[in-house]
Write a structure and sequence with these properties.
2% strand, 214 residues, single chain, mainly alpha
C-alpha cells in the first residue's frame, strides 16, 4: 500500500522507450554520416585548391596527376592518367576537371589501387597472363585470363568483344587499369546468357567487377 502501481506507468511505456531509442540511434548515425560527408568535402576542396595552381577552378591533366599524388603518394603513369581522365572528364570543357569530376577521378584511382595492390588476386592474375610482361594483355592473353577467371573456356569472338568494349585507351589491348572494366563487360555478357532461373554467378566472381573504375 502507498507505493506506485506498475499499471500507472502504462502498458506502452517499454515499447515507447524502445522506439525512442531506435529513433535516437538513427539520428545519431545520420549526424555521423553528415559529419563524415562534410569532412570528405573539406578534404576534397583542400586537394583541389592545392592542385589548382592557376586558380581557374578547373584542373588540367598535370594538375589532376598532382592531386592524385597528393592524396595517394603515387603519380599515375601516362596510360593510367589517360584512363582516369577519360572516365572522369564528363563535363565541358574537355580535358579539364571540376570539383565533382576530381572526386570521380580520386574514387576511380582509389578503386584501382585497392584492387591491384601488391599481392592482390587481380594483380597476380594479370601478371600471370601478361606473358610478355608488356604491362598489357593482347586478345589471346585476355582470352586465357577470362577462361581462368570464369572457370570455363572463353572463345576468341567473346574475348574480342570484351576487348573492344573495354579498350578505352584505344591501343588494341587491355592495360592493367582497364582490366576491371573488361571483367565487368565479360560478366554482363555472362549474365545475359544465363536462363532466368539461374543464379548469375558465385559472389566471388562479382566482387572485383563491382569495383568499377567508372
Amino acid at each position: 500500500k502507498g507505493g506506485f502501481s506498475a499499471r500507472g506507468l502504462g502498458a506502452g511505456a517499454p515499447a515507447d522507450m524502445a522506439i525512442g531509442a531506435v529513433r535516437g540511434a538513427r539520428k545519431a548515425r545520420e549526424r555521423a554520416r553528415q559529419r563524415e560527408a562534410a569532412e570528405e568535402r573539406q578534404k576534397l576542396e583542400a586537394i583541389f585548391k592545392k592542385a589548382d595552381k592557376d586558380g581557374t577552378g578547373l584542373l588540367e591533366r598535370k594538375e589532376v596527376a598532382s592531386a592524385i599524388n597528393s592524396e595517394f603518394g603515387r603519380t599515375p603513369n601516362e596510360k593510367e592518367l589517360d584512363f582516369i581522365m577519360k572516365v572522369s572528364d564528363t563535363r565541358p570543357p574537355e580535358g579539364h576537371l571540376g570539383m565533382a569530376e576530381l572526386a570521380a577521378a580520386i574514387n576511380a584511382w582509389r578503386c584501382y589501387e585497392e584492387e591491384f595492390s601488391e599481392g592482390s588476386d587481380l594483380a597476380m592474375l594479370f601478371d600471370e597472363f601478361d606473358v610478355d610482361k608488356s604491362g598489357a594483355l593482347n586478345q589471346e592473353e585476355l582470352r586465357r585470363l577470362l577462361s581462368r577467371y570464369s572457370g570455363s573456356e572463353v572463345g576468341v569472338e567473346e574475348a574480342a568483344g570484351v576487348l573492344k568494349q573495354a579498350d578505352m585507351l584505344g591501343d588494341g589491348q587491355i592495360d592493367k587499369i582497364e582490366l576491371n572494366l573488361a571483367l565487368a563487360h565479360w560478366f554482363q555478357g555472362y549474365v545475359q546468357g544465363l536462363p532466368e532461373e539461374e543464379d548469375p554467378a558465385p559472389e566471388e566472381r562479382t566482387t572485383s567487377a563491382a569495383c568499377l573504375v567508372l
